[in-house]
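Researcher: Structure prediction, please.
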Amino acid sequence: MASADASYSPKVQKRTLKGHLQPVLCISHPGDHAKYSSITDAHLQHHPSLLLSGSEDGTARLWDLRTRKTAYCIVAPVIENEPNDVTAVAFHPSIIEDRQCSDESGDTTKPASRLDCMVYASSGTNVYGYDLRTPSGPIIKTPHLDLSSSFQCLDEINQLSFSFPKRNKDGVRNYQLAAVDDCGEVHIPSECIPQSIVPQQSPISSKHTVLHHAEPGSHTIASSAVFRPRVNGMYVASGGTDCMVKLFDVTKPKRATSSIHIKPAESENTTQLCNPPFIHSLQWSPSGRLLAAGVGDGSCVILRGEGNRLVEIGRLGYDEGGHGSAVAAVCFPGFGSSALTTNPTNSVEAEDRLLISAGNDSKILFWDLGGNMVDGDALDPLRYLGGCSDVNEQAKKKDNELQDTTEAMKSATISPKKSKSKNKKKGKTNNQHTAASSDDDLFMNDLLPSPPKVLFQIPHHHKPNWITCSRASSDALPSSVFVADTTNDLSIYSLPTS
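Model: Predicted structure follows.
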């Protein structure tokens, strides 16, 4: 089994959040959407000091990461004959609408709404919204919104996922919220998120889109569904226990535009032979080009989005230094967004190479997907990860050597004139010559030393349920990975700032 990159061994600091009485099932950070936006986006206003968690104890907790204490405890409503676990949580994307309105005091500069102060939680088949501007106290028992009738979920919800902003005809940024459930369905009400919050308001959407990841009655669980960022249309990727990853156009929901069947990994790890490749977790890369899937056979499958299609381009398995057990969660952290100062319009593309995975083998792996798998403007993660200044210089030197090698290989190729003469003697056609040239290009790409690899790993000692990340916003809030596992506590792993 390959080992992690020995040249990078950061000193990771671990902290713990204590408060839940039963295992934590899900977590969300306000910056989950921030990594998909340009760092020059003036509308982006995320709150890096907050974290939201949901637990089997029937509560969701809002944490202040500066004090590592609970700011608010949200108690999910108890409904007869339904589980009370909080299985999914989400912050409303933290973007302030750029339209203005007048309030009673005549202030025309106040935003029309601050939906970024809303948090959402699911319990059983129900979805609730809570306005943090008007809490009733440190313990919140009554939701401001009951969205259950809008979603119409028939089984337990596994994930809540927000879309990316689309402007309507009035120029207002609108969002949609999706809920994926154990029936194998993804429910997307058209207008369940109101533009202003009225206590006890329970909007009922007249339009309700259902994406069928699996056929009704197939007993397939849809475990994850995520909106694709940075595209003109509105696409959702879904995965489940049918070992399928599907891509849907929300405007044409009857059939998936693309379906990929994930086959069992071929590995020397014999312990994985009996584990089917169920899809446990999905996440898009910051550019929206790549989709990572955490798979039950211990591998991470990387797919590329090409219009309305998905194409499998790589697999990170045991033989590549990966997990020895099922991958429970994957995350593109977007750690470098605040650090990239050159060509900021391409900052999101630059971070496609860094992926974090958490497996049931109790390991958290930091992957460099490599230049062979990730094209475009993606940077070596060692360029912006903290605590690796020496490695940073090595990475720059390696890039220069890589460029010199590429140029040398290009200059060493057979000239067209000589190649033509040789082809004529052997009776090759122009098409055959083109194919041979393509083979040469592939051979040259194979020689470039940038395959996927594990940069380093963190032993966690418990099976994870969920992971999310936040990029550095200050010395007190460094780049961090948040882990929910089978214990009652939340773990925070912070990377060095320099």
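Model: The chain has a mean pLDDT of 80.
Researcher: Thanks, that helps.
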